[in-house]
Structure to design on (266 residues):
């Protein structure tokens, strides 16, 4: 059954995760010495307007996406150029799907508040195992050593992909000495972590060794006012390491954008 935008919007209203008034006007702290980057759009691709994007990564020419909302959560594989979903697995209606990441033959998925995650066969999306964690699950990415997880706080967790146990102490993320909370979707890009900051149109650039924010990326204006009226927050970052392409999208967004970061004056 096709999910209508009206039905999704009604569900979002009930669970209280709509855009908060004025959230898009959030600015990097005044007087900050951190650099702020803008963007140039390289290409805009179609994106499923019914996809409540919680996780995103690019692999072998396809986008893999994890979507949320109870009863509507899924993992999917889509063609970049057309947005066509070529493979999909719907998860149990009692779970709110969150971030996804791949490691070897497995694809891992978090859930929002239930403290359980799932490991699937990346080729078939067949469930292979489940794992437990404390607190909430928000987002996943990876570096050369293992998985990196956000939980909505100012901390990042580092997990062993074999055992899903934490392999090193949690890393507190700070922006000029102040905790940065609501760290959302993650992408490890050439030695740094890019993170959505929930309810904002900004990305944080995070040093994975120190946890310090090294800069902000201002992504306001990607959607037109008309497109924004039926969309939710910016969320979703993917990187094509082979070709150096960076992609961003959002929850219920009609488009996915390939962008390049551009320094701008403060």
């Amino acid at each position: 059954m096709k999910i209508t935008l009206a039905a999704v919007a009604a569900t979002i209203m009930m669970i209280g995760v709509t855009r908060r008034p004025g959230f898009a006007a959030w600015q990097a702290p005044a007087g900050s010495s951190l650099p702020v980057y803008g963007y140039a759009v390289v290409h805009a691709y179609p994106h499923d307007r019914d996809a409540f994007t919680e996780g995103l990564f690019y692999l072998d020419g396809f986008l893999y996406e994890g979507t949320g909302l109870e009863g509507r959560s899924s993992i999917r594989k889509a063609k970049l150029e057309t947005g066509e979903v070529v493979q999909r697995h719907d998860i149990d209606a009692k779970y709110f799907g969150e971030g996804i990441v791949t490691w070897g033959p497995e694809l891992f998925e978090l859930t929002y508040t239930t403290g359980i995650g799932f490991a699937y066969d990346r080729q078939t999306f067949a469930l292979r195992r489940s794992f437990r964690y404390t607190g909430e699950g928000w987002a996943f990415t990876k570096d050369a050593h293992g998985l990196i997880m956000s939980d909505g706080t100012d901390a990042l967790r580092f997990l062993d992909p074999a055992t899903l146990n934490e392999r090193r102490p949690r890393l507190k993320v700070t922006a000029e000495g102040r905790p940065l909370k609501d760290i959302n979707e993650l992408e490890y890009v050439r030695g740094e972590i890019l993170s959505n900051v929930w309810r904002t149109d900004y990305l944080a650039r995070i040093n994975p060794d120190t946890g310090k924010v090294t800069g902000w990326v201002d992504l306001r204006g990607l959607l037109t006012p008309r497109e924004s009226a039926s969309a939710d927050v910016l969320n979703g970052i993917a990187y094509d390491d082979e070709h150096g392409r960076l992609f961003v999208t959002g929850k219920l967004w009609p488009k996915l954008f390939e962008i390049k970061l551009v320094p701008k004056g403060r």
Observations:
- The radius of gyration is 17 Å.
- The domain at 5-263 is CATH 2.120.10.30 (Neuraminidase).
